[in-house]
Design goal:
The complex is a heterodimer of chains A (about 900) and B (about 110). By secondary structure, chain A is of the alpha+beta class. Helices cover about 50% and strands about 15% of the residues of chain A. Chain A is globular, with a radius of gyration of 38 Å. The radius of gyration of chain B is 16 Å and the shape is globular. The chains are: A alpha+beta (about 900), B alpha+beta (about 110).
């Protein structure tokens, strides 16, 4: 209570210091006067009496200071003073503010973006009222070290658990939603237990949600649709409830519409009841499902896991054949999109390490600048130490200065991060995930601000405390030896490492940009060999594998009959996207220089539809489908056969796939060889390779039957106009042929690599930003180091010049050490560029050049020399300053 | 003992409170002189240190202050004990008595001579 009272009184004194200050001055004066009066009465002269009185007070200023400290909050007062000083420093050194601030902003920005994106996977939060209690229950197959998704049997068993409630399951059920004759598109549908609506706070916008009765086997088929489907496919029809729509092969009645944002379980937009007759009672069989549940009130994740483990042991004992190696586990629901296992953790830690390293390196550089600035204020710091400022006080002051700079940087960093997360990161995630889970949100959040503050404090600690500790070390010693400001202070070994690493990074980054640019140029320069802009590519999915071939034949006929269509064909993969490589052997028994072929399984009509004339031999005929003949492209002839005649050559796969699909991945440990293929023809290069793979591909086309494909794409050649214009007609035709056919990813063939190109452009931009920050920091750092050196050695240079030494030589000698550091950095950086270039060469196809040519090396060395010149730009101003030192002035200054 | 002893850490507050108990209202200079007189000149007070101590006691609510006029007609700030100040004296006095008794016994015991 007493302490609290004292604190309140101190806070009041801190807020309104003026009155108390005046009062105490009056009190002290009255004390001195009374004491003086007494002294006069004791026989002293008035002057002596006052002198004695003052002496016994022990220094009026000191007493006032002590009283002031006790009256207010001195620590906070000092802190505020430091903040003001830090603010003044920003204005006084604008160059440092801009360079250092941008560097710190960059570090904070990068840390924020990485942590926010990573956080979606490591610390996801569900925006649901019961999100914290929602879990996924699954079975792990310990033998395969993988999840066992056939858990219908177990799902039934788990329903008796006391520690879980609202236990339910779902399975993906992607189907075509056919709203009208011309509107058939696949939707992310799910068959889900009705408890899913309850755990996810579902409230229908219209109509109703699914109920238990809908799950009965005999219940009429119903569906609930999501907001986006209602808006886009039903044009926000207010009478949609009750409408009968076609979903794949069946008809369902729409009974409700969910509000915007409802996407439980992941990113779903149409919900069907999980029928109870689906529940197969045979252990470890049936379709794949995912099980969710809520932790029951009063229970925890731990108790639920314990109960689950007990059930798992019992199941293992009762059903050893299926369950001996199965272990049921529980995890937070939102963690299901997070990669499992130690790999995930390793990635996580390496990312933390990377962010830490980036922060330390970038802010270490800012620290270097602050150190140089502090060195120029060394005399000031020494005086403060002499006046009684402790080392921690000075360190705190420099930390606050860095914090002020960091605060400014944080504003820039957070703004830029928000922008990057909203635009780039969302697009990046969308491009890399099929659908964004409903809980993924990268908007500004309290967590982001906490991260930003933590990063700012860390950045300020690195940038402020490190140089402060360095500059205050041995301060009292320097004070005593009177050597402050005369060269006693030195850059240490740590700074040498920082400078060398930074210059090396500066050299590497532009080289990386060059490499990324050359990769991007591949996208632009890549020639598919046919008019890709005239082709529509459609991926076709179907659950009815048996009838797929006749269905596709029917589709070919229908689409081929559409007006404007010049040709229709099928291929396993779209041209110019990456295809499997296969190790090959030639019938002539010679080891080809290049022994990898890019294998394309295509319909016999493929080459003809692409309009590629046969250069030698013959083309495929319908009768070739599924037989052991092949057509190779010019890339194959040039690289594998070294220009010899291809027709009649025998080729086989070293590690073949199963007999019906020889081109699919085989077992590299198996000694088996594939059947011989006879090369019957040669065509020009038709996009067998892709711009994402290095080198020139050696295309090897095998004719396949429609049931042999692993995945199947329809290619439609449209004579004139945009092929996308025909997409609705193709959908219509597919629905007419088989409502269950799902057409996904309709795009022009010249667009298939757009996502990769976009991602590469993003990386390039980031590297350019990194290069700019790196270069700016390097130049500023070099400038700071040399300016510091000149400031330290002014007298020294002056003396030597006065003694008759050559001015240039003295300056060269003074700068020897920093120049050596810069040169070392450039050499290290150039060496790393060479190493990277060599490694890149090795990753290209075997058979192509593996060594760097003399021209390559000369280019890299020339680049290193240019970078050395660029780094030397930072030396210009300090060198000029050093050359201008006049001995007389330099000596007088001391 | 010819040299004057400096005031021990932490004892000044109790001395101030005791002085105010004995003298009633008093200003800072008066308190300082009184402490010196009570110690019969054996304690030397740096008058400056007295004021932060007075401030602390006031902040903790053990004393209050008000401006008044001194005996020789000077304007001065007078300090007065509060009720909690009196309680504090009882508490601190008891504690001092115990501490000093322990120390006396300790120093008097034969094995420590």
């Amino acid at each position: 209570m007493r302490a609290l009272r004292a604190w309140i009184s101190r806070i009041a004194g801190f807020v309104r210091p003026g009155k108390a200050e005046r009062e105490f001055a009056a009190e002290l004066e009255s004390h001195i006067e009374m004491h003086t009066d007494d002294n006069i009465r004791a026989g002293m002269t008035p002057a002596e009496a006052r002198r004695r009185a003052l002496a016994q007070i022990g220094g009026v200023a000191g007493v006032r200071e002590a009283h002031r400290d006790r009256r207010g909050l001195p620590a906070i007062g000092a802190l505020l003073f430091d903040f003001r000083l830090g603010g003044r420093m920003l204005v006084k050194y604008p160059g440092l503010t801009i360079v250092g601030g941008l560097a710190m902003a960059f570090a904070i920005w990068a840390g924020l973006v990485i942590f926010q994106v990573l956080g979606l996977f490591t610390h996801p939060t569900l925006p649901l009222s019961q999100g914290a209690r929602l879990v996924e229950v699954r079975n792990i197959d310990l033998a395969a070290n993988d999840e066992e998704p056939r858990i219908l049997y177990d799902f039934l068993q788990w329903q008796s658990m006391r520690s879980l409630t609202e236990i339910g399951a779902w399975r993906d059920s992607s189907r075509n939603l056919i709203v009208g004759p011309a509107d058939s598109q696949p939707v992310n549908a799910t068959e889900m237990s009705v408890s899913g609506f309850r755990v996810a706070d579902g409230k229908p916008l219209m109509g109703r949600m699914l109920v238990e009765a809908d799950q009965q086997p005999a219940a009429p088929p119903v569906a609930v649709i999501g907001h986006s489907i209602w808006r886009d496919r039903f044009h926000s029809d207010p009478n949609v409830v009750g409408r009968n729509v076609q979903l794949g092969n069946e008809y369902v009645t729409v009974v409700g519409v969910m509000p915007e944002g409802f996407g439980f379980p992941i990113a779903h937009e149409l919900w069907l009841p999980l029928k109870t007759d689906l529940v197969d009672r045979t252990p470890r069989s049936g379709p794949s499902i995912t099980v969710f549940a809520l932790i029951a009130p009063g229970q925890t994740m731990k108790t639920a896991q314990a109960e689950l483990t007990t059930m798992g042991r019992r199941a293992a004992a009762e059903l050893p054949a299926t369950h001996q190696r199965l272990e049921p586990r529980i995890r937070p629901f939102a963690m299901m999109v997070t990669p499992d296992g130690p790999d995930g953790a390793a990635i996580l830690y390496s990312v933390y390490f990377f962010v830490g390293l980036l922060l330390v390196l970038t802010c270490g550089n800012v620290g270097l600048l602050l150190f140089a600035r502090a060195a120029s204020r060394e005399a000031d710091l020494v005086v403060r130490t002499a006046l009684g400022a402790s080392r921690s006080r000075i360190v705190a002051q420099m930390f606050v200065e860095a914090l002020v700079l960091g605060g400014l940087a944080a504003v820039v960093g957070v703004t830029a991060a928000d922008l990057a997360l909203r635009t780039w990161a969302m697009t990046f995630l969308k491009a890399n995930m099929n659908a964004m889970p409903f809980w993924f949100d990268l908007g500004l959040s309290p967590g982001m601000f906490v991260t930003a503050i933590a990063l700012t404090v860390a950045a300020a600690a690195v940038a402020g405390i490190m140089p402060a500790l360095k500059i205050t070390r041995g301060m009292t010693h320097r004070l005593k030896s009177n050597s402050a400001g005369s060269g006693g202070l030195q850059f240490g070994g740590v700074w040498t490492v920082v400078i060398v690493a930074q210059v090396a990074a500066t050299v590497i980054f532009p080289a990386l940009v060059y490499w990324e640019q050359s990769q991007l140029r591949r996208f632009e320069d890549f020639s598919a060999g046919f008019a890709t802009e005239q082709f529509l590519a459609v991926k076709i999915e179907s659950d009815d594998k048996e009838r797929l071939a006749p269905t596709l034949e029917e589709l070919r006929r229908k689409v081929g009959g559409l007006p404007g269509v010049q040709g229709v064909t099928f291929t396993e993969r779209v041209p110019t996207t990456s295809r499997p490589f296969k190790r090959i052997e030639l019938g002539s028994n010679e080891e080809p220089l290049m022994n990898q072929a890019t294998v394309a399984a295509v319909d016999p009509s493929y080459l003809e539809t692409l309009g590629a004339p046969v250069l030698a031999g013959r083309g495929f005929t319908l009768a070739d489908a599924g037989t052991r003949v092949a057509i190779v492209d010019q890339g194959f002839v040039d690289q594998v056969l070294q220009g010899r005649n291809a027709v009649g050559q025998q080729v086989r796969f070293r590690y073949p796939g199963p007999p019906e699909r020889r081109w699919s991945p085989g077992n590299p440990d198996s000694p088996e060889r594939g059947d011989w293929y006879e090369v019957i023809g040669v065509v020009r290069e038709l996009g067998a390779g892709s711009p994402t793979t290095a080198g020139r591909a050696a295309g090897f086309y095998v004719p396949a039957t429609l049931d042999q494909y692993d995945q199947v794409h329809l290619l439609v050649h449209v004579g004139s106009g945009d092929p996308m214009a025909i997409a609705p007609k193709v959908r219509e035709a597919a629905t007419a042929v088989a409502p269950s056919l799902r057409l996904v990813g309709l795009q022009r063939v010249n667009q298939v690599n757009d996502d990769s190109a976009w991602t590469m452009t993003l990386w390039k931009r980031m590297t350019i930003a990194l290069s700019a920050v790196g270069l700016g920091l390097s130049l500023a750092g070099i400038y700071a180091v040399l300016s510091f050196t000149v400031a330290r050695r002014t007298r020294d240079i002056g003396v030597r010049v006065a003694l008759g030494a050559s001015r240039r030589r003295v300056v060269a000698a003074t700068f020897r050490r920093p120049l050596f550091q810069i040169t070392l950095g450039v050499v290290v950086g150039t060496a790393l560029v060479v190493t990277m270039a060599v490694l890149l060469k090795y990753t290209e196809f075997s058979g192509s050049e593996t060594a760097l040519t003399a021209v390559d090396i000369a280019m890299i060395v020339a680049y290193g020399v240019v970078m050395l010149g660029v780094c030397m730009l930072g030396c210009v101003a300090p060198t000029r300053r050093a050359l201008k030192i006049e001995p007389t002035i330099a000596l007088r200054a001391e | 003992m010819t040299e004057k002893n400096a005031v021990w850490q932490g004892t000044l507050s109790l001395m101030v409170l005791r002085t105010l108990l004995a003298m009633g209202e008093q200003h800072g200079y008066g308190i300082a002189r009184r402490i010196e007189q009570t110690s019969e000149g054996k304690l030397s007070i740096n008058y400056g240190t007295l004021y932060p101590s007075l401030l602390r006691l006031e902040q903790e609510g053990l004393i209050t202050s008000a401006w008044g006029v001194s005996d020789n007609n000077r304007k001065a700030k007078f300090y007065k004990l509060t009720r909690s100040g009196r309680k504090q004296i009882e508490h601190d006095t008891r504690q001092w008595a115990e501490t000093s008794a322990i120390m006396t016994r300790f120093l008097a015991s034969p094995e420590h001579r």
